[in-house]
Amino acid sequence: MSDTAPAVAVPSTAQKLTAELLGTFILVFGVIGAAIFAAPTAGLLAVAVALGLSVVVGVYAFGPISGGHFNPAVTLGLAVAGRFAWKDVLGYLAAQVVGGILGSVVLLGILSTGPMFDIAIFRGASTGYDELSPGGFGLGSFLIAEIVATAVFLFVILGVTSAGRAASNLAPLAIGLTLTVLVLVAGPVSNGSFNPARSIATAIFGGELALTQLWASIVAPIAGALLAGVIYKAVFDRPAKLTA
């Protein structure tokens, strides 16, 4: 008998990118679909729960293949923290953006044959400040909410996926529940994105104002993720000191 350990299949680059595309598609289809169809009657809670559950489902389904990022800010934050290879970043970002756009396209197709169809509904689902903020908050409030919320999100991801610090099979639940809480807090301020791919997916159909404000929905989450990645690596991923 051989003592050689069985070979473990390593996902190919194409499989990883496809997983990221599908995972981001599920996320956008779930959360924006809830914002369009459920939020008018069920409110912000429906959107928050839909986002959390979409991420849980996506990470359980595709996390073993690609790591389950589904968010350009997450990919960049993990790279800065030393948890993801920089050489794979661009491919992940492209797959996430394409997956998000496909999610919006499918939702647009569903809406197109419905009663009182109006593409302007995507403006209400778009992230932004002033007129696009559900609570009428300005740019400063928007930036603080998106930066801080995304940083908190990254801290949780880095914490629950650290080797030896938590049960990895429960990580998707912690990540999804964190997003649910963050949307309940930041939703009235920014519409709670924390994800450039999700913001791009709605802005392309959200009209001129959504496209004009899109820069903030890209810059703020990335800034928060990079900040969290740098801090986490410096504080928590330092080598343990040996005691006598």
UniProtKB/TrEMBL annotation:
It is found in: Membrane. The keyword Nucleotide-binding does not apply. It comes from Agromyces lapidis. The chain crosses the membrane at residues 21-39, 44-63, 93-117, 137-158, 170-190, 210-232. Its main location: membrane. SUPFAM superfamilies: Aquaporin-like. Keywords: Membrane, Transmembrane, Transmembrane helix, Transport. Belongs to the MIP/aquaporin (TC 1.A.8) family. It is a multi-pass membrane protein. This is Aquaporin.
